């Protein structure tokens, strides 16, 4: 059983960090106003406002910012400001025992998948695959996406069914296992490293953005050859947005069907999880049940 961090209370202080790519500072106020609307106070990490070619500060600055937020007893949750790139560059230098000793909510997705995987493996803690702060506060940020932050204040089981978005069963059946995964590209990039993700008996979540069909095919083939697909218990296929070369989402589902149908493990596509609106936030590292016959995903609470 992984450690579930303590729930948030109104008035708690949370940390805001930029551990991957930077966010333009003129966009920051509305992001902080969103946290205030949840009843939270905040501390800005030293990486907020730092810029480089594509990184929010140096590796050392981003690593130190993360460590300080984990060690600060006033900080009850850490929210990532933006994805992009950079998590893998500092993964091998993180003091993972720090988070085990100071368990707290860690929230983000996309490039943050690398941290999710590492924290689950080496800190033994539940983390949260949810919208980056870069997307909140804007006009297109939906009420449902905002509502998903409430799981941090009140532990509740999440049930995702076809009332939220149209779902399609590729392979019927049901499976129970720990929910893990995230961005397909970042998961594949862990292969052959000490951070190689564990798929054994897990329900795997996949999502991605801006990839051509042949690259999605190639990544799934690499997972097939690495036996990650064989090892999994079931598959939750999230959103694949901004497809290249005029491809349609049905083309993506066809690729998944080609790779996953022979495995005879439950597979459901169409979840609004990833680079999309709404973006349904889910805890990773907790038990989940995927019922592909009824097209329902049930996920246990991520906080205590």
UniProtKB/TrEMBL annotation:
<feature type="domain" description="LD-carboxypeptidase C-terminal">
    <location>
        <begin position="176"/>
        <end position="288"/>
    </location>
</feature>
<dbReference type="Pfam" id="PF17676">
    <property type="entry name" value="Peptidase_S66C"/>
</dbReference>
<feature type="domain" description="LD-carboxypeptidase N-terminal">
    <location>
        <begin position="14"/>
        <end position="130"/>
    </location>
</feature>
<feature type="active site" description="Nucleophile">
    <location>
        <position position="110"/>
    </location>
</feature>
<dbReference type="GO" id="GO:0004180">
    <property type="term" value="F:carboxypeptidase activity"/>
</dbReference>
<feature type="active site" description="Charge relay system">
    <location>
        <position position="275"/>
    </location>
</feature>
<dbReference type="InterPro" id="IPR027478">
    <property type="entry name" value="LdcA_N"/>
</dbReference>
<dbReference type="InterPro" id="IPR003507">
    <property type="entry name" value="S66_fam"/>
</dbReference>
<keyword id="KW-0121">Carboxypeptidase</keyword>
<feature type="active site" description="Charge relay system">
    <location>
        <position position="207"/>
    </location>
</feature>
<dbReference type="GO" id="GO:0006508">
    <property type="term" value="P:proteolysis"/>
</dbReference>
<comment type="similarity">
    <text>Belongs to the peptidase S66 family.</text>
</comment>
<dbReference type="GO" id="GO:0008236">
    <property type="term" value="F:serine-type peptidase activity"/>
</dbReference>
<keyword id="KW-0378">Hydrolase</keyword>
<dbReference type="Pfam" id="PF02016">
    <property type="entry name" value="Peptidase_S66"/>
</dbReference>
<dbReference type="InterPro" id="IPR029062">
    <property type="entry name" value="Class_I_gatase-like"/>
</dbReference>
<protein>
    <submittedName>
        <fullName>LD-carboxypeptidase</fullName>
    </submittedName>
</protein>
<keyword id="KW-0720">Serine protease</keyword>
<keyword id="KW-0645">Protease</keyword>
<dbReference type="InterPro" id="IPR040449">
    <property type="entry name" value="Peptidase_S66_N"/>
</dbReference>
<dbReference type="InterPro" id="IPR040921">
    <property type="entry name" value="Peptidase_S66C"/>
</dbReference>
<dbReference type="InterPro" id="IPR027461">
    <property type="entry name" value="Carboxypeptidase_A_C_sf"/>
</dbReference>
């Amino acid at each position: 059983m992984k450690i579930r961090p303590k729930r948030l209370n109104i008035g708690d202080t949370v940390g805001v960090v930029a551990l991957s790519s930077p966010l333009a500072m003129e966009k920051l106020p509305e992001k902080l106003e969103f946290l205030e609307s949840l009843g939270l106070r905040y501390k800005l990490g030293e990486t907020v406002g730092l810029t480089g070619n594509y990184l929010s500060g140096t590796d050392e600055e981003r690593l130190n910012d993360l460590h300080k937020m984990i060690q600060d007893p006033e900080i009850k949750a850490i929210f990532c400001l933006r994805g992009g790139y950079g998590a893998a560059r500092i993964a091998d230098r993180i003091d993972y025992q720090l988070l085990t000793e100071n368990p707290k909510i860690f929230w983000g997705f996309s490039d943050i998948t690398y941290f999710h995987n590492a924290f689950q493996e080496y800190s033994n803690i539940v983390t949260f695959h949810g919208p980056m702060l870069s997307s909140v506060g804007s006009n297109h940020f939906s009420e449902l996406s905002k509502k998903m932050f409430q799981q941090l204040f009140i532990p509740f089981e999440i049930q995702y069914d076809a009332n939220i978005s149209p779902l399609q069963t590729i392979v019927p059946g049901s499976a129970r296992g720990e929910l893990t995964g995230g961005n397909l590209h970042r998961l594949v990039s862990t292969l052959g490293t000490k951070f190689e993700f564990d798929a054994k008996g897990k329900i795997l979540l996949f999502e991605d953005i801006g990839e051509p069909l042949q690259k999605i095919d190639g990544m799934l083939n690499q997972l097939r050859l690495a036996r990650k697909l064989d090892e999994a218990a079931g598959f939750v296929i999230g959103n694949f947005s901004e497809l290249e070369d005029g491809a349609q989402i049905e083309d993506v589902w066809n690729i998944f069907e080609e790779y996953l149908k022979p495995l005879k493990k439950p597979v459901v596509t169409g979840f609004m999880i990833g680079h999309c609106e709404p973006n349904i936030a889910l805890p990773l590292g907790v038990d989940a049940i995927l019922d592909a016959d009824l097209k329902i995903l049930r996920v246990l609470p991520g906080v205590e």
